[in-house]
Amino acid sequence: MTAWQDQNPNPKSEIVNQPAAAERPRADFVRHANLISRLTLLSRLFGLVRDKACAYFLGVGTNWSAFWMGFQFPNLFRRIFGEGALTAVFLPVYVRVRDQYGQTAANQVARAVTFMLIGVLTAITLAGEALLIPLALAPGLAPANRLAAAMIALMLPYSISVCAVALLGALAAAHEHFAAQAAAPIILNVAMALAAAMPVWWWSWRYPPVWRVAGVAMAVLLAGSVQLLMMAAAVRRAGVHLGSGWRILPTFGGKIVRAALRDVIRPMTPMILGLSAVQLNTFFDSQIAWWFSPDGHNGHRLFHLLGLAIHTPMLAGALGKLSVAQRIYLLPVGVFGVATATALFPSLAAAAAAQRRDEIKRLLNAALRKSLFLSLPSTAGMILIAPLLIAAIYLGGRVGPADVARAAWAARWFCAGIWAFELQMILVRVFYAQGDAITPMKIAAAMVALNLALNLTFIWFMQEGGIAASTSLSAAVQVMVLAGILRHRLGAGWGLRGVAVLVAKCLLAVGLMVLVVLALNASLAGVPALGPGHRWPGLAVRLLAAVLAAVLVYGLASRWLHIEELAQAPVLRVFRRRAVEESDAGALRN
Predict the structure, then answer these.
(1) Which helix (H) or strand (E) is 219 found in, with range?
(2) What Cα–Cα distance (Å) separates residue 110 from each residue in 104, 211, 548?
(3) Got the DSSP string for 356-381?
């Protein structure tokens, strides 16, 4: 029992009694995950438009690498505080307070946590600006490093708004309002695309790219303000009233609120590392790509470290290419993995609060099956189409074939870990729902160290691909360790044998899919009208044909293999058998 639960063992009876999320049909979790997937897919499509505009007008060289260096910092804070540790520890506390003490007490806890988050991030931002602004203006610093410092300084305030948006999104999710949170990135993508393109239309190419990069950074700040206003309205519609202005401050005086804050703050440190291993690895990947390429050394291929002259293993613009590769593998991870984990966690938190261990097992089993059914074909499919997809999106303007080849090389190694990135999000949340923050922290610390060691080994002969391969391999090892521990703790009853059978069926379907897509792509590549001489039209036709063929073959193979998850999978459900559809409908009625 937590500290705040001891304060009032007999909650008032007039509090609204909401059924625990664990008692709702598990079909609700799948339905919510599918809704988030659809909205996230729409957001990712806008993200591709954004990437096309930014790449076409700004390129993926040193200037874009400097922009991405700055953009990584608010993204890191968002993934650690907004969508990571803070959300994971706050949501179970919020649900318990709401269920035992009512919505008014839950509102007070939400206000206090929001105020705490904004205060901490504001302090970090001010300290960062005090350090970064002098670096950006220092005449003795290399121009590329000055630009990187300027980009970080410009976009660091975005950390405040984007983390607040993520926290408000978690509040809305606790009340089963998922749409606004999933749609919020669309605002950012549209703002960045317009900021990259409009200066070119209005001011022509006479202005240096560095000014357009700064314009995109300013658009990020503007988008953050709009996102925050939209999420605040969504939270109010969900029934959560945070108040305004100084009304937040008095909430720290209540015993329930103080105890709840202690329950939020205490596990934060281990959770930051435990839930953010992939994000920390991605952040360190970016730092290595910058400092082990000429970008971090004023364009020189040699740099000195500990008295040794070292030749950079990567070419200029390595971080820009790595950012392109990350966008490619994050497309399915965001559409399926994040959606599944986001929809799952409120139900897990409620089941753990009610000590329904069997329900935790059933939810975990449903999440694993759904994730594997979609992530395994996504892994293989994205490896196949990564070069076509990158060329179709980025080729042209300031991006040439050599840039596409380097980005595709890294993207394929990232895509090899898609299944692991998605499963890691699910498994870690099971630990946190049960109040264990230490075990994931220890495992994550080891994985971050492993990733750094592999990075510094692989980059010398795999360049950007070595960074991507290290991240994927570390995620796979983390999933295996987490799953092994959970298997020991939860014991029998969460259907591991059934999951293994599902994996075997999925791999068979994936194998058929790969064979058909490879044969189709080879045939189309030999058609003169679709060859390299007709760049974008040929790429678009071959890409569309590959995607449609992959969906068709995997869907039909899943139907032939009687895979139950087909009935509730986005898009693929059109291939389900009628009997499966009727069985699914009967389960929902019951």
Answers:
(1) helix 209-237
(2) 10, 40, 45
(3) -HHHHHHHHHHHHHHHHHHHHHHHHH
- Structure tokens, 274: 């435990």
Q: Between 277-291 and 438-462, two packed helices, what is the crossing angle to 10 degrees? A: 30
Q: Where in the chain are the domains? A: 3-7+28-494, 496-590
- What is the DSSP secondary structure assignment for residue 242, as one 8-state letter? -
* Closest to 53 in 3D by CA, of 186, 194, 191, 151: 194
From the list 75, 73, 165, the residue with the least C-alpha distance to 117 is: 165
Structure token pair of residue 431:
């630990």
Q: Look up the pTM and report it.
A: 0.70
Question: What is the rounded distance in angstroms from the CA atom of residue 60 to the CA atom of residue 405?
Answer: 12
For residue 572, give Cα distances in angstroms to 327, 563, 579: 24, 11, 16
CB 57 within 8 A of CB 397: yes
Q: How many Å apart are CA 18 and CA 67, to the nearest integer?
A: 46
Cα dihedral angle (26, 27, 29, 35), rounded to 10 degrees? 180
Both tokens of 69, joined, read 């260096």
pLDDT per position as a tens digit, 94-142? 878 887 888 888 888 888 888 888 888 899 899 989 988 988 888 877 7
